[in-house]
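[job 0412] stage=complex_fold ligand=adenosine monophosphate status=START
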Amino acid sequence: MLREVESLAELRTELEKRGRTIGFVPTMGALHRGHQALMERARQETDVVVVSIFVNPTQFGPGEDFDRYPRTREADLELCRQVNADLVWFPRVEELYPAGCQSWIEVQELGERFEGESRPGHFRGVATVVGKLFNAVKPSRAYFGEKDLQQLLLVRQMVRDLLFDLEVVGVPTAREASGLALSSRNSYLTSQERDQAALLYRSLLRVRDSHLSGVRQAKELKKVFLDSISGLECEIERLDLLHPRLERSYEGGEEVDAGYCSVALRFGKVRLIDNIALCS
Ligand code: AMP
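[job 0412] stage=complex_fold status=DONE, emitting structure tokens
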């Protein structure tokens, strides 16, 4: 039976009762099939599945969508029941960020590049909250989506650097039939924007196919993407060909052997990210 807790004390009591291996899925709620895939994987691999739902204020920048981020508690609980999760934790903001709180986790370099450059302070907020959640839940495994590629690699780096005793598991991106990556933010899109946004993934597939058929120069691969989305009413905020460990991006005539094509697009006020792996 699904248990719902809010306070840290309740969380600890519940976890102590259960013991055994804990699979943890941290989320911001407005749960969809992408989150479901993470929970199902946790269900397969661990004894106790814990989901946290917390819209973390410190990872939103000024002018971002913290206030209007969708909050759908009842529907979220229903989805957790469907996948047979054991515990849903709705952390209280005053417990995660006690008054006078002064400690932060910063993953340098990786936290500042790419998405970090577009969203200053974002990854500091992510690493800090994930570190706190790990300390509270003490999972054996934690599940993160490949859709948020840089976040996944950043959490792995943090776990290595700070000796967290857990395994970080990456889960492939769940998509709509159109190819659009599922995201809580898709609810902001009009149906016309949603149709258009589907071209984002089709364009990433074109980049992958071109790469497979021998197009290797970074600028050529970018051109494939740009040609494919030309005509779309959106702003390209970021288009990067990334090193497999996200150590750097490939530029100009540099050859991309393996890595990722990663992109952030804006449809009106809605910012969408996606990526595709390029294999040698
Ligand atoms: P969020 O609630 O957006 O913070 O996401 C919580 C977790 O779900 C993160 O690890 C995300 O990467 C993951 N996630 C979000 N969307 C998807 C998706 N379409 N497929 C797989 N994982 C996802």
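The mean pLDDT is 96.
[job 0412] exit 0
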